DNA sequence: GTGAAAGCGCTAACAG
DNA sequence: CTGTTAGCGCTTTCAC
């Protein structure tokens, strides 16, 4: 049914090999005359290469895989876009898998991508810290690499992988310092699940800056949450309830004057909960996020955050994968700067 | 290098055919004894099927393609997530292509997906109305279908395609009616580019409801914009500038009392522009959007909009593609209801 | 129920 | 520079 290379070759009166050479690039060269004939036949017949056949013959496909938590999440969506665009520029298609951060599903996704013989796998959201799940995933990744696959990561996944390294720690530290500069002395941090490397790095940045400014452990409340809107909402609710209970028990002013959510999505939930409780932001409590997702500036109030060039990071991960010369340092790393963006959700401490 | 089916067969002491039958399903049955042996060998050796080879032999791949404007856009991101999940449930991987609505890129993407021999193509964001570009795209799609491909669409693409049909027109009409009920009599509509079918349908819904309520052409201002934040922002700026100019020229009260942006992203831009101009929402002007993207409720103020079950729509499109019995009506359509959600951005007309 | 063998469409030596 | 040919790994008749 479909037009094959053979059909084109016959129609052009050349051999299969020649047709292949002109249509699907090759080192060897073909005379312009035959070349033109083949091209003419190809589009007269409406030839479209059979990618699986090419992948089989070449032992590598024309696709690139992306592993992330959720494409619908603005953070990952932007990365997926960057990966997709860079892949397209290289003539590749991108396979996107949303795993919700579930190690079992990540493992399965990696196997599927491996089976597809994708040219490379970009790890965008698999920042596990859990060694157990990590081992099996590493094995799957190793098997893939042993067969010529390339793995590249956004956020550290250990040495050996080309890595795009956003300055999570530095950005978080800078943000914290800025907040401290506004006079805040009691700060609540809504961080992500322990297994997420980004969450850990960002948390460390906050803690580090707080400690450097002489804040003690009691002045920095850390609350874990999923990196989702509801996670942020619930986390801030717990923080406030606890503070209020302490207040009633005699303490005073134990409420934090600022809450730093380590992801914008989370911060959106924090804002929602605060609004619902009638707590004015930033008059009573300041709020900051991280990532600077596209809608951050449209939240109520406009969210102060740390900007990361998400799409570029995705593109960079692809470049690292496809270009053996890209990246520097022994782990082939690309460092990405984070930039503090102060908007309306943060103000001088009351 | 890689472990092949042949290796497994040899290791298990059976033929290639038998190994294939047990590992990659088939109508024929194999004794439990051999079956077990093969499975044991397979995972002793760490066998992973070669998807391209399977695709070549079977003449169809284990992937599904999604064509959309931009994965990073919440509307499409949610759809992509739904498609990806449904695909995963069917054991398939999903290929995502962002085209920014550019017909040339859409055409190219369709060809790439066809070349990959994807099992189906889900058209999520190709609602062109422009017949010129449409023709070439239809041809590419037809060629794909002639070779056994299945095309399914979200939003109407003409008969012949299985279609998931959100009630754009009805939702827009209902929203408009609700606005009219709040006393608004001068309404501005920020719609999308002419080539986008969704934009047209939604616009028609608004116009229809307005006409039914006896509003004349002068009371409904229509402004086109790209369906992006900046598009919405610029559109509302044009609307206001024009109204203000008219005001100065002697007219009075020509400013609309409500602006309906036919996409939430657009509405976010509208809100931003209004905020910048110091116009209070909803006190001076009400604003409404469409889609109910996840962050709609977190905008400033919380956005009134029309909810569409985006992820479900994506999943439904996949079901339509994979299950020949799915969908009803001659065009195999699945109707999806839209629900008006009134939040803080709309209020009684001043 | 199981195996042998013929492709699927293309690439890449290898000759000429 | 061009053509011949042997696979790539798997599925699938077709015999046994």
Oligomer: homodimer
CATH top level label of the largest domain in chain A? Alpha Beta
Main interface: chain pair and counts = A-B, 56 and 56 residues
Structural class of chain A: alpha/beta
Uncertain segments of chain A are none
Annotated CATH architecture of the largest domain in chain A: 3-Layer(aba) Sandwich
How would the global form of chain A be characterised?
Answer: elongated
Work out the number of β strands of chain A.
Answer: 12
Protein name (chains A, B): LacI family DNA-binding transcriptional regulator
Domain HTH lacI-type (chains A, B): 3-58
GO molecular function (chains A, B): DNA binding
Keywords (chains A, B): DNA-binding, Transcription, Transcription regulation
How would you briefly describe this protein structure?
The structure is a homodimer of 350-residue chains. Chain A is built from twelve helices and twelve strands. The first copy, chain A, is an alpha/beta fold.
Which features would summarize this protein structure in a list?
homodimer; 350 residues; alpha/beta; 434 Repressor (Amino-terminal Domain); Rossmann fold; 3 domains; 12 helices; DNA-binding; LacI family DNA-binding transcriptional regulator (chains A, B); LacI/GalR-like_sensor (chains A, B); Peripla_BP_I (chains A, B); Lambda_DNA-bd_dom_sf (chains A, B)
Can you put this structure into words, describing what you see?
The structure is a homodimer of 350-residue chains. The first copy, chain A, is α/β, with parallel strands linked by helices and 350 residues long. Chain A has helices at 5-12, 16-23, 32-45, 51-58, 74-89, 103-115, 131-146, 168-181, 197-212, 229-248, 264-276, 310-322, and strands at residues 63-68, 93-98, 120-123, 150-154, 162-166, 187-191, 220-224, 258-261, 286-288, 305-307, 333-336, 339-341. A 6-stranded parallel sheet of chain A has the order 2-1-3-4-5-11, with helices on both faces. In chain A, strands 7-6-8-9 form a 4-stranded parallel sheet, with helices on both faces. In chain A, strands 10-12 form a two-stranded antiparallel sheet. In chain A, α6 (103-115) runs parallel beside α7 (131-146). The N and C termini of chain A lie far apart (74 Å). Chains A and B meet through α4, α5, β2, α6 and α11 of A and α4, α5, β2, α6 and α11 of B. The first copy, chain A, binds a DNA duplex (16 and 16 nucleotides) through α2 and α4.
């Amino acid at each position: 049914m479909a037009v094959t290379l053979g059909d084109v070759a016959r129609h052009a009166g050349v051999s299969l090999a020649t047709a292949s050479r002109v249509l699907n690039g090759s080192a060897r060269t073909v005379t312009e005359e035959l070349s033109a004939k083949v091209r003419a036949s190809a589009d007269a017949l409406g030839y479209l290469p059979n990618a699986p056949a090419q992948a089989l013959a070449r032992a590598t496909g024309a696709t690139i895989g992306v592993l992330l938590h959720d494409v619908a999440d603005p953070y990952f969506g932007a990365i997926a876009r960057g990966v997709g665009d860079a892949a397209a520029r290289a003539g590749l298609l991108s396979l996107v898998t949303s795993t919700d951060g579930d190690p079992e599903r990540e493992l399965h996704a990696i196997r599927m991508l491996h089976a597809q013989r994708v040219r490379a796998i970009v790890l965008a959201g698999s920042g596990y810290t859990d060694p157990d799940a990590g081992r099996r995933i590493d094995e799957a990744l190793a098997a893939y690499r042993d067969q010529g696959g390339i793995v590249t990561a956004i956020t550290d996944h250990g040495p050996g992988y080309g890595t795009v390294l956003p300055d999570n720690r530095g950005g978080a530290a800078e943000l914290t310092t800025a907040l401290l500069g506004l006079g805040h002395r009691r700060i609540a941090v809504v961080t992500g699940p322990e297994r997420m490397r980004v969450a850990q790095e960002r948390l460390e940045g906050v803690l580090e800056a707080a400690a450097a400014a002489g804040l003690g452990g009691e002045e920095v409340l850390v609350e874990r949450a999923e990196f989702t809107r509801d996670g942020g909402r619930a986390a801030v609710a717990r923080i406030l309830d606890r503070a209020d209970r302490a207040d009633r028990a005699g303490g005073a002013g134990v409420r934090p004057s600022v809450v730093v959510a380590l992801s914008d999505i989370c911060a959106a939930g924090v804002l929602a909960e605060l609004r619902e409780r009638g707590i004015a932001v930033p008059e009573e409590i300041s709020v900051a996020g991280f990532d600077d997702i596209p809608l951050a500036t449209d939240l109520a109030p406009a969210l102060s955050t740390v900007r990361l060039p998400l799409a570029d990071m995705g593109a960079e991960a692809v470049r690292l994968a496809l270009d053996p010369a890209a990246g520097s340092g022994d782990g082939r790393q690309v460092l990405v700067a984070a930039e503090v963006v102060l908007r309306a959700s943060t103000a001088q401490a009351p």
